[in-house]
Amino acid sequence: MKRKILIIGLGGIGEAHLKSIINYRNYQIEVCEKDLKKINILKSKYNTNNIKYITRLPKNKKYYLCIISTNPKERFGIAKAIIKCNNLRYILFEKFVFSKIHNYEKMANYLKKKKVDAYVNTWADFIITSLRLKLKYEKIDMNIFVQNGRMLTNLIHFTSLFSLLKNDFNLKIIKLKNMKFFRSKNISYHEMSGKIFIESSDGSKLNIKSKLLKKNIFEIVCKSKSYNFKISLTQNLKINKFNYITKTKKSINFPLVSKVTLKNIKNFNKTLFLKYDIVKKNSILILNILKKSSKKYIFVR
Description:
Layout: E1 3-8, H1 12-21, E2 27-32, H2 36-45, E3 51-54, E4 62-68, H3 72-85, E5 87-94, H4 102-114, E6 117-121, H5 124-131, E7 141-147, H6 151-166, E8 172-183, E9 190-199, E10 205-211, E11 216-223, E12 228-234, E13 238-243, E14 248-253, H7 257-266, E15 274-275, H8 276-293
Parallel strand pairs: 1-2, 1-4, 2-3, 4-5, 5-6, 7-10
Antiparallel strand pairs: 6-15, 7-11, 8-9, 9-10, 11-12, 12-13, 13-14
Helix pairs in contact: 1-7, 3-4, 5-6, 6-8
């Protein structure tokens, strides 16, 4: 029997999820999108009988997985309605999950009550697994330099990477410096520049700084007693690791959604998408950073 998958939202990320799973015969796909123009474009692009298009949120249906790829501003209400009115096994959120702190605990309660397992699409565990990073038993100093205009949208990835490496999901804000906010390329959301200093319970340090980078989107430099390496993401989406101790290099492709979703939803016991409860704490950390840094409401995507 085919597993039913519901994708809500047909923006760039929603379509990328669709691309990854559309040719897998064991899935029956429903796409929920209120914009009829987007639906017609997809119908002409993907000539298949495996997709059912709907314009309203479904009720009283059973799904193996619901992927919510709408924007954060409306995601909580949509997720609440879907969980309340349907039978779900799994739900996959896009980052940044919700825009308001109180929504995270509310959603955790809804998920628990309805026995839904929730995950978030971040690339932190992909990098750790693919590059075989093991640092949780060592005190580390991690410095991240990120291209101007890409800092805020990637904060959840950076903090998740650090938390997973340290196995610590109760990070502390130590200091914020030169924090400035401005509209991102998507004018509905904000971006930021500045310096953020975070610490784990064992005194490991995470410093994130915006910077003008010529070749890379971000650069991660990590040092400990046993390790000294640099990870960079190039403009053509190659992740490169250089070990300063062994002088060895490793390169992998960035985990694009269109390439990795299928593999990671087949068996959630082996997925590299992060559990909601893990991402929840760092999302709240980031929202607290924004509250401390700006009197205006800042929208993250």
